[in-house]
Specification:
This protein is 28% helix and 30% strand. Strands 2-1-5-4-3-8-9 form a seven-stranded mixed β-sheet. Helix 3 links the parallel strand 4 and strand 5. By secondary structure, the protein is α+β, with helices and mostly antiparallel strands. The longest helix is centred in the first third of the chain and has 12 residues. It has a single domain, classed as 3-Layer(aba) Sandwich (Glutaredoxin). The protein starts with 13 loop residues before the first strand and ends with a helix.
Length: 152
């Protein structure tokens, strides 16, 4: 499956957050949502990206935008990641990568000559009606939150 495109309906989902609470995409209809997929909690690139959203959080709040992070980590790892870095937004556990697959961001990766399946770092901006309004592929973690703010 390929990455979803602008104009497509964002696949609805229901995932547990860092507090084992159920979060549904449909709960945010009427608001813009920034949905960022990251490979693994507490790794360098993921921490850089997530901290950028944390540091710019008030600018997203001023625009009435919800931020949600998704990775294949379990809720315990998400909780530790959130507490350590004081993220003011939810981190969702997609441990079986089913949602990542629906969004087309679970794919073949290569590192140090090794191939494996994992999250392709991607961010979606979803509009108030649940449609994808912007897609960022092959995200570079440093400065990414500013890049997202620029399209809002």
């Amino acid at each position: 499956m390929s990455v979803l495109q602008v104009g497509e309906k964002a696949p609805v989902f229901e995932l547990l957050n860092e507090n084992n609470e159920t979060i549904r995409l449909n709960d945010f209809l009427g608001k813009k949502v920034v949905l960022f997929f990251y490979p693994r909690a507490n790794t360098k690139g993921c921490t850089t990206e997530a901290c950028g959203f944390r540091d710019d959080y008030s600018s997203f709040e001023d625009r009435d935008v919800v931020i949600l992070g998704i990775s294949p980590d379990d809720t315990k790892d998400q909780k530790e990641f959130q507490e350590e870095h004081k993220f003011p937004y939810h981190l969702l556990a997609d441990h079986d990568h089913a949602i990542a697959e629906k969004y087309g961001v679970w794919g073949l990766k290569k590192m140090y000559g090794r191939e494996y399946m994992g999250i392709l770092r991607t961010t979606y901006v979803i509009d108030e009606t649940g449609n994808i309004s912007h897609v960022f592929e092959k995200v570079k973690p440093l400065g990414h939150s500013q890049e997202v703010l620029a399209v809002l």
